[in-house]
Amino acid sequence: MSLPPSARPPTSCGDVPCPSATAPPPATAPPPASAANPAQAGTAGDVPSPLTPGPTLDPANWPTARAQAHRMLDDILDYVEHIGERPVWQSIPAEVRTHFRAPSPSQPTDLAQVHDEFMRFILPYATGNVHPGFMGWVHGGGNLAGMLGEMLAGGLNANLGGRDHAPIEVERQIVAWVRDWFSFGDGASGLFTTGTSMATFIGVLVARTKVLGVDARERGIAANGRRLTAYASEAAHVSVAHALDLCGLGRNALRRVPVNDAFEIDVAALRRMIREDRAAGCHPFLVVGTAGTVDCGAFDDLTALADTARAEEAWLHVDGAFGALAVLAPALAPRLQGIEHADSLAFDFHKWGQVPYDAGFILVRD
User: CA torsion, points 34, 36, 37, 43, in degrees to nearest 10?
Assistant: First the structure.
């Protein structure tokens, strides 16, 4: 049953009429969108959209912009395809550094000029981690699919801070996948970060909140009066100390535990240090295990750390920046036994996951 015309809602969006089923067709209808690609519908060439009659950020000429975009895509595809023919790395000449000391421009710069500057002053002097001969540090190399995905994501320009749109469902899907990979259970949740350093900071904050209570966020950590201490191996990443610094506990709250001959945390030494700190009036609240140290790839005994943390009523955080994704490799997954008992886990998709930077992740059990 349809409403009479007088009872129907208005069909306008501000001052611009909205299309409706009863509106007459335009005098010259545009060609229909492709069924395979509805995004083709709309305005072609440099004809302005009826919804943007004033100044716009759109290109002045869409065919020219499209041609320039294809040149940029072809150039970076050529770079990636033939990267093995280039040096892994080369130093930046003084004149190139000088180029980046120029004052900020006061007028628009043509996109073709920006592209030319990129090709001459940036592309030849990258870190080199895309190169198959790159063996330094633990950088991921990225991949073509990820690069193209970044392009699509940039076009969407999605803000995942709220609202109701499909990109949020994509993130929720990945959270569910990660939960399953590490057997964290349906109550776990997580979010993307710029990297494991930020993810570890979040994990430490959650651990601090658990031991001091939520009101510590209002009253501060000194109001509780407890001297909190945390424990990580001598091979643990410096981001653990930074996290304790940033959350107000100070770097001196971190106890550096010796490692054994395999560069794993010495669990017996850990337990002894916890006992000594308790006797001195401290409150051990956090144990940090490492799944793949950045110096030699050592994996701590996560099962023993989980047992120790549980016995001491401490939070177990795992820094899996380098090695956590080994859980997806059947031959390596046994090295991660015990990670399913962690309270929080930080890792990077942009290392062994080989996706473009930045793509860290924090997973919290409860």
Answer: 0
